[in-house]
């Protein structure tokens, strides 16, 4: 009888630990957000969180999933602007406006994820003085067979 109780207790302990293991099994995601924003004011949100991109220059940010192992070592401000991705559906909101309407500046924004053959997202703009848009992207550890990049703007 005590043997059965021991086995039952062990089974309950394994069941209690299973959700923690499932969370730890989330894949590590890494991506690079690049903005060539000379002549533009730019704001990029990923899953509702501000990446800190401002425009007016060339900028690049490494992005990770929210449960990436490096999150524990990151400061709170880095966590808030770099650990934004999640496996599966992600929303990228972009807002931009030209700072000098007469300038011939070109805006380019790309999001490149590790494990993908092309950028997930590429926005190129020369013509529109301003815009607000939102794009839903699927991000996994590796590109699915059905992967198609999202191209927006002048050069698709």
Show the helix and strand layout.
Layout: H1 2-24, E1 30-36, E2 40-46, E3 49-50, E4 58-65, H2 76-82, E5 83-85, E6 88-98, E7 107-113, E8 121-125, E9 130-139, E10 150-153
Describe the structure.
The chain contains two helices and ten strands, in the order H-E-E-E-E-H-E-E-E-E-E-E. It has helices at 2-24, 76-82, and strands spanning 30-36, 40-46, 49-50, 58-65, 83-85, 88-98, 107-113, 121-125, 130-139, 150-153. A six-stranded mixed β-sheet has the order 5-4-1-7-8-10. The N and C termini lie far apart (70 Å). The model is unreliable at 4-23 (pLDDT under 50).
In summary, what is this structure?
Helices cover 19% and strands 41% of the residues.
Proportion of helical residues: 10-25%
Strands, count? 10
Principal-axes geometry comes out as: globular
List the quaternary state of the chains. single chain
Mean pLDDT, all residues: 86
Note the main sheet: 6 strands, mixed
Please, how many helices?
Answer: 2
What is the CA-CA span between the terminal residues? 70 Å
Class from helix and strand fractions:
alpha+beta
Strand order in the sheet with the most strands: 5-4-1-7-8-10
Helix/strand order, N-terminal first:
HEEEEHEEEEEE
Percent in strands: 35-45%
Uncertain segments are: 4-23
Notable traits:
6-stranded mixed β-sheet, 156 residues, alpha+beta
């Amino acid at each position: 009888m005590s043997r059965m109780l021991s086995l039952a207790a062990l089974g309950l302990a394994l069941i209690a630990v299973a959700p923690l293991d499932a969370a730890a099994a989330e894949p590590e995601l890494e991506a690079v957000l690049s903005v060539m924003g000379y002549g533009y004011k730019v704001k990029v949100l990923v899953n509702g969180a501000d990446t800190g991109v401002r425009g007016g220059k060339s900028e690049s940010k490494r992005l990770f999933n929210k449960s990436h192992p490096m999150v524990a070592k990151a400061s709170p401000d880095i966590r808030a602007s770099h650990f934004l991705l999640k496996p599966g559906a992600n929303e990228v909101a972009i807002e931009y406006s030209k700072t000098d309407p007469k300038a011939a500046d070109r805006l380019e924004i790309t999001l490149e994820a590790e494990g993908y053959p092309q950028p997930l997202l590429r926005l190129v703009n020369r013509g529109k003085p301003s815009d607000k848009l939102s794009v839903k992207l699927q991000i996994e550890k590796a590109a699915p067979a059905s992967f198609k990049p999202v191209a927006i703007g002048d050069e698709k």
